[in-house]
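Hi all, long-time lurker, first post. I run a small reading group and we've been trying to get comfortable going from sequence to structure in the token notation. Rather than ask abstract questions, I figured I'd post a concrete chain and ask someone more experienced to write out its structure so we can walk through it together at our next meeting. Sequence below, copied exactly:
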Amino acid sequence: MQKIKPGDIVARKKYGKDIFFKVKSIIITDTGKTTAILKGLDVRLVADAPLEDLEVQPAEAVLRYRHCDIQKHSLCFRKILQRREAEREAHILRGDVFLKGEGEPEKKAVSSGDGFFEVPGRVLHIDGDEEYLDKCLHAYAQLKIPARGFCLPEESQANKVEALLKEYTPDILVLTGHDGLLREKDINYTDLDSYRHSKHFVAAVRAARMLRPTHDDLVIFAGACQSHYEALLEAGATFASAPRRVLIHAYDPVFVVERIAYTSIDKTLVPADIIKDTITGTDGIGGIEIKGKLRLGYPTASY
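-- Answer (accepted) --
Happy to help. Here is the structure in token form:
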């Protein structure tokens, strides 16, 4: 068996090598067993596995895996940009009608789009994984979503979120990182102690809601792979993972945020409208109806 070391890309034989992981570290458990701590390449999952269950993946297999992932999220990006362009035209027309004024139905104040600018919702993204945070911040920039990001361990997020909310006053808060069911004996899906980090996400959501109590004021996405969905919603999350305790994609929080940030404040979104833009779908993401955060401004500056 090839020696496994931190940084290797591996797959678990027990699960049919369905997911590729990067080895974070090698530890010795209390029982004296050598175990690898794993981080998903494309899913927000931290897992552990005995070394004998792992197989180091050849470079060509890793390239194919990454290419397949790129295709999935590129398709989502294309759908988002197509949808946004259609919605933008409708939004600008609404502004044109507003500028005509009462009693002047025939007057055309400006040609469509002239002088208008969009103000999308602002995002504060707190992530337990620096690599995933960088990917998400790059995606926000591609999608023209104003965002600030901070890498904080999941267990530290509850202690830091209030100060960050006060400093950056976002419209949308993302609390994510890694999670997963602790597969020891029988699993109690309703017990927060059955999850690696769900209790930390719950605590962070509660801390945020102490400062910003309502969903209309602050939209919150919380959770990662296999997270305790019901507990997160009860704590005050607007959207959360994972209704079916499945793995969620690293970009799923971004796709949820984008739909809210670029939907007009005069429109209410039902969860299905938002979740259809994600990679994981309703097995991995759920939430409640919410108003959009996009505002239309007029006129644009001259300088």
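A couple of things your group might point at:
The chain has seven helices and 15 strands.
Confidence is low (pLDDT under 50) at residues 105-112.
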